[in-house]
């Protein structure tokens, strides 16, 4: 009896010493996992292709096939194109994050983290932050390349802040959405094969590459109001220097709303993982 | 010690080798079919890969028709753009597939399947030939799927049976010769992901810089000579003519010459790398 209460006391002390909860612990552990994920990204040659070569190829490719034809409709295509290519880059970050998460689940890294004295949120937060860094670097690279094609950012300081606020929110929503795929399927090759399904219709059935008026009329309502279109409209207005607060708010509302819904779903799946 | 070994009977060995009958035309055909069937079974048992890589070009076809028809053709008719776009969508979809085909090959090399094949009494050529045949089957499945989907949005064959067959087979022949490049990469690769990373940056510019999405007048003047001579453009043009039932012997000839060139250059390179890897 005496022994039991001793063990109880000891266990309480040990748990207290591990200090798995608390905000400070969560932040420190998340940084740790972020660092680990960034090292993995840095050592993977495919990442260079994904953040530098793909965006350049898509930007150059669409510019070269579209600029003459779009000029007929009175559109400076490089200014028109940069937001959607930027969103595509963020989608790639989401795709990559879901594959990495699926790998962590498959190889047992996830279970390993579970038994270690680290904060529960660290694994997910570390994933999101590492891919956020990757998305921002890719955005900067894209801007540099686009500059060479004649792209200019006409907005002021507030436009810059607004632009990057949208970029960061979009990345967070996108990664959160894609974690659901990884948590459901848990197989990297399957995730890789399926990950293209949410991406293609959202990106291509948007007004990002071609104005809404060019779509068949029955498709136009979807094309006009879906989140990728609203966000690329908002980004376009910010970089052209005619920022529209209404568009910014509409885009943020879409993204934050999705973030809450997808986030709740993802957390539920995550809790059920072990 | 050596004198304890029995005397080697060269006649008996020759008889054994002869009874294995690894050479010969019939044997080669039989073995090619066997390896091809094995690879096809792998595809069938793991249908996600082939279904997604068929669905992806179809979604590109629909989406580009929806968004670019009014930009490209002045009358803005969706079905006439679908007629224009489909050949290119097929070529592009099949070219994307070289990554999957090469990955399958890489996995075999990685887990020792090819070493196993070496030790078995089958025709040497069957390991490569069987794979090409199975890949051809996979590509034909995809092409047929994409064409059927295109019928929904207004694409129509206007030629006879021969031009339909030519339409279906030409991109497959071209893609198979390009996939030799993928095989070559796969032999030297250290991971399945690096195969994809090495192939994709070549395929994307090749497809963008072609008369696939828009006719050549849509491109800047300096780019037009490159666009016109890009083999992807030539395949697309040949297939467009075949779909309309027009004669396309000139461009078909050029496509076949490109394929022959690729086979002549990449074939020996790939075979040499293959021998060395094993």
How many strand elements of chain A? 0
Main beta-sheet annotation of chain A:
none
Shape of chain B: elongated
Query: Average pLDDT of chain A, to the nearest integer?
Result: 88
Backbone CA Rg of chain A? 22 Å
Q: Outline of chain A, from the CA principal axes?
A: elongated
Query: In percent terms, what proportion of residues of chain B is strand?
Result: under 5%
Number of domains of chain A: 1
Element order of chain A: H for helix, E for strand: HHHHHHHHHHHH
What does this structure look like?
The complex is a heterodimer of chains A (274) and B (278). Chain A is elongated, with a radius of gyration of 22 Å. In chain A, helix 2 (23-42) crosses helix 6 (122-148), helix 4 (77-107) packs across helix 11 and helix 6 crosses helix 7. Chain A has helices at 2-18, 23-42, 45-72, 77-107, 109-115, 122-148, 157-185, 188-194, 196-204, 220-225, 227-239, 245-271. The mean pLDDT of chain A is 88. The longest helix of chain A is centred in the middle third of the chain and has 31 residues, at 77-107. Chain A has one domain. Chain A has 274 residues and is mainly α. With 278 residues, chain B is an all-alpha fold. Chain B has one domain. Chain B is elongated and about 90 Å long. In chain B, 43% of the residues are buried. The model of chain B has no long low-confidence stretch (mean pLDDT 86). At the A-B interface, helix 3, helix 8 and helix 9 of A face helix 3 and helix 8 of B.
Describe the protein's topology:
The complex is a heterodimer of chains A (274) and B (278).
Chain A: H1 2-18, H2 23-42, H3 45-72, H4 77-107, H5 109-115, H6 122-148, H7 157-185, H8 188-194, H9 196-204, H10 220-225, H11 227-239, H12 245-271
Helix pairs in contact in A: 2-6, 3-4, 3-6, 4-6, 4-7, 4-8, 4-11, 6-7, 7-11, 7-12, 11-12
Chain B: H1 10-20, H2 25-45, H3 47-72, H4 78-111, H5 113-119, H6 126-152, H7 161-188, H8 192-208, H9 224-229, H10 231-244, H11 249-277
Helix pairs in contact in B: 2-6, 3-4, 3-6, 4-6, 4-7, 4-8, 4-10, 6-7, 7-8, 7-10, 7-11, 10-11
């Amino acid at each position: 009896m005496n022994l039991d209460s001793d063990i109880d006391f000891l266990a309480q002390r040990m748990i207290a010493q591990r200090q798995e909860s608390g905000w400070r612990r969560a932040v420190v552990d998340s940084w740790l996992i972020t660092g680990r994920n960034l090292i993995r990204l840095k050592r993977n040659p495919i990442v260079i292709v994904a953040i530098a070569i793909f965006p350049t190829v898509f930007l150059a490719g669409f510019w070269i096939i579209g600029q003459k034809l779009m000029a007929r409709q009175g559109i400076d295509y490089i200014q028109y194109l940069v937001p959607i290519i930027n969103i595509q880059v963020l989608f790639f970050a989401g795709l990559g994050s879901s594959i990495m998460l699926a790998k962590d689940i498959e190889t047992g890294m996830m279970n390993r983290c579970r038994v270690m004295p680290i904060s529960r949120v660290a694994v997910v937060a570390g994933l999101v932050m590492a891919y956020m860094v990757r998305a921002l670097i890719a955005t900067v690279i894209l801007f540099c390349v686009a500059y060479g094609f004649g792209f200019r950012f006409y907005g002021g300081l507030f436009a810059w802040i607004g632009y990057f606020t949208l970029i960061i929110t979009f990345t967070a929503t996108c990664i959160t959405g894609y974690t659901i795929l990884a948590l459901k399927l848990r197989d990297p090759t399957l995730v890789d094969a399926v990950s293209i399904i949410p991406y293609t219709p959202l990106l291509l059935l948007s007004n990002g590459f071609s104005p809404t008026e060019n779509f068949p009329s029955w498709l136009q309502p979807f094309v006009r109001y879906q989140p990728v279109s609203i966000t690329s409209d908002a980004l376009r207005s910010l970089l052209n220097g005619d920022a529209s607060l209404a568009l910014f708010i509409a885009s943020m509302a879409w993204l934050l709303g999705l973030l809450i819904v997808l986030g709740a779903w993802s957390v539920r799946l995550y809790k059920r993982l072990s | 010690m050596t004198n304890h070994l029995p005397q080697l009977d060269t006649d008996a060995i020759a008889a054994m080798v002869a009874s294995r009958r690894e050479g010969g035309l019939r044997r080669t055909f039989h073995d090619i079919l066997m390896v091809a069937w094995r690879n096809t079974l792998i595809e069938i048992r793991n249908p996600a890969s082939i279904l997604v890589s068929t669905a992806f070009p179809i979604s590109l076809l629909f989406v580009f028709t929806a968004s670019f028809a009014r930009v490209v053709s002045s009358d803005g008719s969706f079905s006439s753009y679908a007629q224009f776009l489909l050949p290119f969508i097929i070529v592009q979809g099949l070219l994307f597939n070289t990554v999957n085909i090469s990955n399958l090959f890489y996995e075999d090399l990685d887990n020792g399947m090819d070493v196993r094949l070496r030790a078995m009494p089958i025709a040497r050529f069957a390991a490569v030939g069987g794979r090409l045949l199975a890949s051809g089957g996979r590509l034909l499945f995809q092409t047929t799927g994409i064409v059927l989907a295109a019928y929904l949005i207004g694409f129509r064959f206007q030629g006879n049976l021969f031009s339909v067959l030519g339409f279906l087979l030409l991109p497959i022949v071209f893609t198979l010769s390009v996939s030799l490049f993928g095989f070559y990469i796969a032999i030297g690769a250290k991971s399945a992901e690096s195969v994809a990373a090495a192939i994709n940056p070549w395929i994307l510019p090749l497809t963008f810089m072609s008369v696939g999405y828009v006719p050549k007048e849509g491109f800047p003047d300096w780019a037009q000579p490159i666009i016109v001579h890009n083999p992807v453009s030539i395949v697309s043009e040949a297939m467009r003519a075949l779909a309309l039932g027009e004669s396309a012997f000139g461009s078909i000839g050029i496509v076949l010459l490109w394929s022959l060139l690729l086979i002549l250059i990449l074939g020996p390179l790939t075979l040499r790398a293959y021998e060395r890897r094993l």
